[in-house]
Amino acid sequence: MYSSAPPPPTGYPAMNQGVPPSNYGAQYGAQGPPQQNYHGGPVQYQGQQQQQPQQQVHSVSQFVQNTQSTSGKVPFEVDKSRVGILQVNFGCPATAGGVLQQVYMKKGSMVAYQGDIKFEREGLLEHGVGHMLKKAVTSEGATLVRATMGSKGSSGRAHLYLADNSKVVTVLQLQGESLTVNGDDLLAFEPSLKHQIVMLKKVSAIISGGLFNVKLSGYGCVAILSHGKPITLLVKKGQPSVFTDPQATVAWSGSLNPDFNTDIQFKTLLGRGSGDSFQMKFDPSKGEGFVVVQPCEEIGPQRS
Length: 304
Hints:
The chain is 8% helix and 33% strand. It has helices spanning 60-66, 129-138, 264-270, and strands spanning 76-77, 86-90, 102-106, 110-114, 117-121, 144-149, 158-162, 168-182, 186-189, 194-199, 212-226, 231-235, 242-244, 249-253, 259-262, 278-282, 289-293. The longest helix is centred in the middle third of the chain and has 10 residues, at 129-138. It starts with 59 loop residues before the first helix and ends in an 11-residue tail after the last strand.
């Protein structure tokens, strides 16, 4: 027969007692648990507050106040809290002088407008036969739409709102410079800017469906698109060449003349004939400037 276990020392908690004494573990520098019975749930320690999820609830008046459009005092505006929407303000002073009455915009980018505005595609013969041929090859004729403020109404003002799949909108003001923009990343520009289609060398063998770019020059505002916030890479003499993925390249200085570089190792490893196996090469010996790159590739060929 086994003898019963000796009784615990004096001061030790009895069996089945829910809470140890307050000085339990004090000799080791530990703080005893709160004096409360355990019922199976989490123990709430002193000073610990249970966090409740915070919900942002707005009144109707607050919502309207916080989501109104911007001031409308410049041709192109993008609110910091709504970086995916471009506001075009007809009737305000244009960048190159006069009053803004017309803009070129990407087809399908209109999300709203206020006032009398007419929309029409750019005529194929407007810029000559050579321009028409390039449009036929690149489908650019179905990409640009001309928006013109009408004569109805006495205010002489109208507002146009443009967006494209929640992409970030960046507005640049050209002051005699030139900028080449990927055709799919061009949202809108003032008519005071001269524009022409630029085809890249060897592009037909690189990306199915073709890749076109629009070169803008002169004085005026242009709005470009990017997936997320873009970064800018400088192309400078004395520095190595800059290589970019064609489908991640948004725009570059008009002074740059990129070439295409083929990386056989990339093609072999990835097993595909486009994308990372081809890069745009910006050689500083052929010109200095900058390249704008987005943190995401355009999916598939560009479409009108």
